DNA sequence: CTGCAGTGTTGGAGCGTTCCATGACACGCG
DNA sequence: CGCGTGTCATGGAACGCTCCAACACTGCAG
């Protein structure tokens, strides 16, 4: 009979005593090993049930040297884009015995560093960084210890680092192509700032404009990735002498801010100015919003990251892959043909 | 000198060897204990630095019997309301050595159960449930093992369970009072369904209507908590023979759906119909949306939950508290006085 | 009858910490 | 001088598991 006190979890010893076998045998049964007689197996399982025993995974991890746990750092949970990537991640980590530990510092680099290190101290088997603001030094340090997959950012490219991201340049091209197809020529870009992602989208825009023979119309207005940034930048557009007939904005949030500013000034979207965002967050599909956007395959990105990580955990010598997925344009009601007059006007030049 | 292989983390033994002391002494230094000579302390710290040693928290947890880690279950990361509660939680868990482990199953009861149990197996020191779909049985089981604080839901009331929520009935009252003050009389409610929260908001609405002498106008339309539910319900409102001048909707998402439906039908918000939501999610403040809403003190709720949990961890015998916080109405541009005609019409009766 | 392969079970040595009991040493006091 | 007290350092027993070596037993081939 077990001698455990109430309120204290049963241990493998308690189970062994209850079942009248050795703790080694209990361990064998629990880990589903062969060479255990049916009777003893049953006795053990009965004891497990009676004591409602659940193995202490801390002890298990210490002994077995792996935790069946992966750590996930998320840049910002307020941005639904990351949450959608997370969904994909979970469906990719299909092993039911795998726990994923989520951690977020809202973009604070130093806090992110601390969190990732404590994930490492918890002996996670691997890490997924869904956007991050870590220094390359920290990333290198982390990589030296455990497999790492980076999602979203393409800027950290080093040997042994798996990455998953979308092709921002091509995506920007899709946005421009969509607007050109609708008849727009005077298309401006509200950009995202200094980050690598923002830069790619900006370059993609500039390239595409050139390709479509609209180099002369190429205009970049400094903005950012927030609602507010889009609002401000749209204000600057309104104040400009000349007006575009369409705006390609750095991301969906920013695009929403821009639309709000335009509408507040009595400029109708899309009747007067079309707006295209980037990211394809689910929110953009809400009826009240209904924003045309370049959608990243968020779910697929998360799923792929999970698969790459588990492959890497299984085989640490595996060659690193940098996977770039293709985004897709989703046309909604924030984009339409240019107003006749504006169209005519822009053709005059 | 240490003999550790490359790529393998240094252990306390390596540090001890490097510093020429016993592992016990290293442990003392690391845990900042007194009665260690300055020289040895320094030697240990130097060795720690040279080997870039970080304690294995798995081993530490096993030996010390606590992990300085709290588990957090979140109902749905897609709902910014929960994310904002999480922010509060983090600022309440100020101890920098405390790690919070986040876990979410998107409302799948069975997956939630598994996740919470594995959090327990990881020996977290306590748990916060930010909305959940666990059975009362599971909650009881979890409570038996570790301190638990439940945020948002008030339906699970049992001895020893700390809870934090807002006063949904009073909040509904605020919404009605706001609309009445603006001159509305014919105020309808799009409800949230069967959940306890939805029920409270519905009852609060009904009570308030009665109190304001508008019992005759009391009308509840079945909806839900999603964008789509609001859209559908608003459709039903439009199809009704009579029309309200204001809508109090179960939550912000649903309210957004309702606004979209109304606008699509050419009904202006707030000129023709005012709309008030519930929750106070940051998104509702976005310029494009600008929804009048009953704001829960989300940050405070999270903060309080963290504080209650750490108090509970420190003193497990502490009496459980059920804290109910007061929501506040935030008036934005989705509510205004009723249209003159509608106002007059409703006064005729 | 011996030996060996396969099957079933066990004790005990880790895993990397914490923490307790113990001891060594120095100092001051009666 | 002996003794208590405070300071500093250490070995070793946990913590709850995994995993290996060893052993016992059975059955069968040689």
Annotation keywords:
homodimer, 349 residues, alpha/beta, 434 Repressor (Amino-terminal Domain), Rossmann fold, 3 domains, six-stranded parallel sheet, six-stranded mixed sheet, 13 helices, 12 strands, 15% strand, disordered N terminus, DNA-binding
Structural class of chain A: alpha/beta
Number of domains of chain A: 3
Distinct helical segment count of chain A: 13
Strand residue content of chain A: 15-25%
Pair with the biggest interface: A-B, 52 and 52 residues
CATH architecture annotation name of the largest domain in chain A: 3-Layer(aba) Sandwich
- Classified by CATH, the class of the largest domain in chain A is Alpha Beta
Regions with little confidence, pLDDT below 50 for 5+ residues of chain A: 1-6
- Tell me the quaternary state: homodimer
Largest sheet of chain A: 6 strands, parallel
CATH topology of the largest domain in chain A: Rossmann fold
Q: What order do the strands of the largest sheet of chain A run in, or round the barrel if closed?
A: 2-1-3-4-5-11
Number of strands of chain A: 12
Q: Output the CATH homologous superfamily of the largest domain in chain A.
A: Response regulator
The topology string of helices and strands of chain A comes to: HHHHEHEHEHEEHEHEHEHEEHEEH
């Amino acid at each position: 009979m077990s001698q455990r006190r109430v309120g204290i979890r049963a241990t493998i010893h308690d189970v062994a005593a209850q079942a009248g076998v050795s703790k080694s045998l209990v361990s064998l049964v629990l880990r589903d090993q062969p060479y255990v007689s049916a009777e003893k197996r049953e006795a053990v399982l009965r004891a497990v049930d009676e004591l409602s025993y659940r193995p202490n995974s801390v002890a298990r991890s210490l002994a077995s040297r792996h935790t069946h746990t992966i750590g996930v750092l998320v840049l910002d949970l307020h941005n639904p884009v990351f949450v959608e990537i997370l969904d994909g991640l979970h469906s990719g980590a299909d092993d039911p015995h795998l726990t994923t530990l989520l951690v977020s510092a809202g973009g604070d680099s130093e806090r992110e560093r601390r969190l990732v290190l404590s994930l490492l101290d918890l002996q996670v088997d691997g890490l997924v960084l869904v956007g991050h603001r870590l220094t390359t030094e920290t990333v290198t340090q982390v990589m030296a210890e455990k497999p790492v997959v980076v999602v979203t950012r393409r800027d950290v490219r080093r040997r042994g680092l798996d990455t998953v991201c979308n092709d921002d340049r091509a995506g920007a091209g899709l946005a421009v192509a969509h607007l050109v197809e609708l008849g727009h020529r005077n298309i401006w870009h509200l950009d995202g700032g200094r980050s690598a992602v923002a830069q790619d989208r900006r370059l993609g825009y500039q390239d595409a404009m050139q390709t479509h023979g609209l180099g002369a119309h190429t205009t970049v207005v400094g903005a950012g990735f927030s609602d507010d940034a889009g609002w401000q930048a749209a204000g600057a557009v309104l104040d400009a002498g000349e007006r575009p007939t369409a705006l390609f904005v750095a991301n969906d949030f920013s695009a929403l801010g821009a639309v709000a500013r335009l509408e507040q000034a009595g400029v109708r979207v899309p009747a007067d100015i079309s707006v295209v965002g980037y990211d394809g967050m689910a929110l953009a599909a809400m009826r009240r919003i209904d924003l045309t956007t370049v959608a990243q395959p968020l779910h697929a990105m998360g799923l792929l990251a999970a698969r790459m990580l588990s492959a890497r955990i299984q085989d640490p010598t595996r060659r690193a892959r940098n996977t770039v997925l293709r985004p897709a344009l989703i046309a909604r009601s924030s984009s339409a043909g240019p107003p006749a007059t504006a169209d005519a006007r822009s053709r005059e030049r």
